[in-house]
């Protein structure tokens, strides 16, 4: 009888330990508007794998891709209020709340993707990170989103003049609206998920984005003219709710930061491969790619800078970006 009592007690202890372990695990939810397999989605997944491994399973990251938790505008509020803990999102929608994000969103501010990497990995990137904390978010990483260019369903774009009067979807950002206006076209801000049907039905003539988005969202099916004007090289931002981050121990914060840093290298590698693959896909699908003279586009951006870079802090940031070699 004593033997069975000891066995029962042992099972009770084991069950209690298992329950304690299960309770100790914290599941963090992360949103992304892009489909499963997209480089940003895979970057956050990799971050989650590293965090789970290095915290011995105490933290797990669930990535909700394909806008399952809502479009970007909705998920920004969700992560700020703590409804979700993590979010990978374009930097442009933050232009109205974090003024420092205006600088990387400016057209032609970066000379190349390599230039963007150096800027975001350095002092300017740190300055933007600090500003995000004022709205209750901690920046864990900057991810690549390549260069954005115009595409449409009507005609090839070889110069600024070809854009005049056309209707383009843009990110919900005043800078993007003003950029399109400066080129003589009409901007229509709308959620990413509505772009395909809007081009298909003629509500808009086109949009602007990178090759992977143009490919994975199948926009090339309804807008076959892609103009490689590369007006912005806008990094993505991977953020965490600050209250949730502050609840981490200093040791776990270090784990999260290091995992995020390593995920950046992984995401950049995946991004470069995806751009090459997507360009092949859209060309095979009938897309026509043109290479307009960019100088006309660059010259047209003067009023955009004049309107949006009036704050002394932003003026200094623009100079700092240009000084990075």
TrEMBL record:
Source organism superkingdom: Bacteria
Record's signal peptide: 1-24
SUPFAM superfamilies named in the record: Periplasmic binding protein-like II
Coiled-coil stretches: none
Keyword Signal: yes
Keyword Signal: yes
Keywords of the record: Receptor, Signal
Name the record gives this protein: Tripartite ATP-independent transporter DctP family solute receptor
Organism: Pseudorhizobium tarimense
Taxonomic lineage: Bacteria, Pseudomonadati, Pseudomonadota, Alphaproteobacteria, Hyphomicrobiales
